[in-house]
Amino acid sequence: MRKIGMTSDNHFDINQVAVPRVIKQQAAYLRQHHYTDYLIAGDLFNDFTRSVAYVNQLAQQLQGQCRVYFIAGNHDMIRGTNFNQLQSSVNAHYVHQKMIAFPGTDYVLIGNNGWYDYQFANLSGKSAADFAQWKRAFWVDGAIVQPVSDIERMALVLKATKMQLQQAANQGKKVIYMTHFVPQAAYISHTGRRPRWAEMANALMGSPRLGQLLTQYHVQAVLFGHTHLKYPPRQIQGVTYFCAPVGYGTKRHCEWRWGTNFFNEWQACLQTYCIK
C-alpha cells in the first residue's frame, strides 16, 4: 500500500518560517506516520530557486522512506526562474509534465503546474486583453514573464495533460493528477463586497476545461491549491478533489483555521490518500 501525503501553498517566506526547523518537523512527521509519498502542489516560496532547495533538503532527509514530488505555483514563478526552465525537467522531484509510477500499484502521478484562461470569470463585455491588463496592474502574476499569452499557456497545459492522460489510459493506469490552479467551478465564488474585483481575480484562478478533461479520462484523484480556501475532500463527476492549502498566517492576513503556528496548520491541512 502507498500512503500519500498532499499539501499546497505553504508560503514559507510570507509566513516567515524557520525553514531548517520545519524541514526536520515535516520529515519526522511523515516518517512517524509512514507516508510513502509526499506531494506539494506549488507556492512554497516567491522564488523558484528557494523552492527547489527546500524540496531537495526535505527529500534528502526522507531518502529511502518517503518520495517527495512538487510542481510550481504562481508564487514560485515570480523570481529565480523563467518560462523555459519551468517547462524543463529541472530535477527528479519536479513533476511538471511528467508521469511517475507508484511502485506496487497500477497508479501513476501526472503533474502539471497549470494556468488559467479567464473562463471562471462571470463578467460580460470583458476581453482577454482586459483581463491581462488587470493582471499586470494588480495581481502578483504581473511579475511573471512569459513568451505566450495566458490563453496560449493554458492551451499548452491542456495539450500536455491530454497526451499524458491518454498514455496512462493506454497502459491501463489509474491517475492521481497534481496541479496548482483550480480545475472545477465548484471552487469558484461569485459573491463578495467587491464583485468586479472578485470576478477579475476569478479569471486568474484556473480553467473549467481542465476539469472537463479530468472527468473525461476518469481520473481517480486530483490535488490542487491556489484558492487559499480549505475544503474537505469531495467527489465531482466521479473524481475526488483535494484542496486544503496552508495559506497565510500573518497578522495582516490570517487564513489559518486550526493551528496557532505554521507546523500545526500544515499538519491539520495535510491530506491523505491511500492506494493499493
From TrEMBL:
- SUPFAM superfamilies attached here? Metallo-dependent phosphatases
Domain Calcineurin-like phosphoesterase, by residue range, is 3-228
The domain of life is Bacteria
Which Pfam family name is an example for this entry?
Answer: Metallophos
GO molecular function ontology, one term from the record? hydrolase activity
Query: Mind telling me which CDD domains this protein's record contains?
Result: MPP_superfamily
Q: Under what name is this protein listed?
A: Calcineurin-like phosphoesterase domain-containing protein
Can you name the source organism? Answer: Loigolactobacillus rennini DSM 20253
